[in-house]
Specification:
Elements lengths: L4 H11 L22 H7 L6 E6 L4 E6 L9 H18 L11 E6 L4 E3 L4 H9 L3 H19 L7 E6 L2 E3 L1 H6 L4 E5 L3 E3 L13 H9 L1 H10 L3 E2 H7 L4 E3 L4 H12 L3 H14 L4 H15 L4 H16 L4
Parallel strand pairs: 2-3, 3-5, 4-6, 5-7, 6-8, 7-10
Antiparallel strand pairs: 1-2, 8-9
Amino acid sequence: MALSTEQLHQQALNLAQAGNDNLPWPSLARGIERPAFARPARRIEVDLPTLRTALEAETGVLWATMKHNDRACCTPALVGDTRDYQTLLKDRFAGFDAIEMPFRYLAWRSESRGAFLMGGDLAFVTRAVRGQDEAALRAYAYRCCEVVHENYDALGLPIMTVALVQGDAIGGGFESMITNDLVIAERQAKFGLPEVLFNMFPGMGAYSLLVRKIGERAARELVEDGRSRSAEEMKELGLVDIVCEPGEAEIAFRRWHAENDARFNTLRTMRRACRRVAPLDRGEIFAIVDMWVDLALSLSSNDLRRMDCLARVQEKKRAG
């Protein structure tokens, strides 16, 4: 049964006051059997209109599956459900250390095999621009930035974030993908930042994230050429960690998990160190998205028609 947004917020408030009775992970405390975590599982497993989560207690993986019922993109509904769920997890596990957590990995995947995420909701954006609805456009853009920033920071929790890219990651989908600590991509997936093709730029963190990850020159090339790239090219750039065959992203993640889970604390701490060296400031990405909003509101009718074409592709890529 799906939880409403109001129920989700209330659940977060209730859970923040709950006590912790979790036992350590077996790999950290030999001889102590880790329980099935049935109670936390019920608390953090939700079925929202655009997002379904499931805790795999035996491996410490919290699966987060985007449904893409209408369009394979960052619809306002998906952004809202994702942000509410991030808040739920932050409230539930604030102050927990790694041993106390019922999960180690937050793994994002898509229900649509043809798409991970096909960017921002261009149907929504074009309606807002044509109507010159600055308030709606800015509110949507800010919410997207909040989601990106929180995932990049691993929600401020002692976990690692994972992206299983089983389909195309375009625009905002590309931006959200590179916020993760581990990215596994299937070979057939395509990647790109096409915004320049309709006189825009990726405004929800791409510049900030790419400069930190691959340097200014390579970042500008990715943003400014609008070209589609392969999973192998993404791996060469250091933006994808593992490339696997079609349909094998979960298998590849489980293989990586089996080989690396004993090193979880080291790997997680190394990712924290990287973020400490090059922190992503909220003010920076919000200042850039303000530029994005101003530019969007000045787009021509020809630019909007080009966006309409990609919006139709987003609809074709929906789940089912």
